[in-house]
Each structure stands twice: as C-alpha cells, then as structure tokens.
Protein NATD1 (Vicugna pacos), 113 residues
Amino acid sequence: MAHSPAALPPGALEQGCPIRVEHDRRRRQFSVRLNGCHDRAVLLYEYVGKRIVDLQHTEVPDAYRGRGIAKHLAKAALDFVVEEDLKAHVTCWYIQKYVKENPLPQYLERLQP
C-alpha cells in the first residue's frame, strides 16, 4: 500500500505552519509549496544585465490569497538582491507595493527606475 505525502489541510498556513520560501537559481524563481506539493506560489525574475535582475511576476493560487504568502516571496527576492549586491528593476506591481509598504534603505538603494 503506497503512502501519499501528508497534505496540508485547507487553512494550515493560517494555523502557524511556517511558510518556507525556496530559491531555484537555475529556473530563476522563488517558490512556496502549498498543500503538500500540489500547488505552489511563485515569484519569477530574470537577469537583464550582469548585476541587474527584473522582479517580474508574483503568483499565488486563488485559494491561498490573503494569507501573506506573496509578502514572504517579495521579501526573499529583495533580500536576495541585497545579499548578492544586485540592482533590481521591479516590473511586478505586487513587489512595487511591498517596497512602498516596507521602504527599507537597503531595498530602496538597489531599485532602478
């Protein structure tokens, strides 16, 4: 009898399950696994210069919206920009909003118009 991986019950993220962001450098994306591994929230980026990334798109499945998952993705991506000493162009409207709500100097000084 095969065992299936334990899936998170609906709402598990709200019940204190930690949200873990994974960074796939090869695919240039940050992701959070939801509901076991059936669903994922993602943030996509591209290198548009040697030291410049474009934070392009954040996507959270409808059933998981409003739980702060995109915030974790945005923070992870911006922290990556800071840690790698990159510049960032922000195409994604959500990340633009996140920076406005969290105007940390280390983020602001790395943003490109």
In short: The longest strand covers residues 39-47.
